[in-house]
Amino acid sequence: MLPPVARKKMQAWIRSRHLxxxxxxxxxxxxxxxxxxxxxxxVTSLGGTLISVEPTKRVWMGTHRKILLYQARASLHTPHHDxxxxxxxxxxxxxxxxxxx
Length: 101
What we know:
Elements: H1 3-15, E1 19-22, E2 25-30, H2 33-45, E3 49-61, E4 65-75, H3 83-90
Helix pairs in contact: 1-2, 1-3
């Protein structure tokens, strides 16, 4: 994946509150594991590393089904990206799956 495409995808995840910045790490939460794989491709394309992927909890989908929520943690310490500034402008401190808004 080319870095400009990876940066655009990560910016879209920031706006949709799937991706937040926590200290020096980026946390990505999703219900779809293939999205975690796409996140890993984006991070490596921008020169970072995926640190961990953990199932955190189960989230209700509809009224009768619970789906596993995955949280991926990545480190992106490269000087040429501006994703942290983009997150300050358009992002949130909570993901869309947090109980508190």
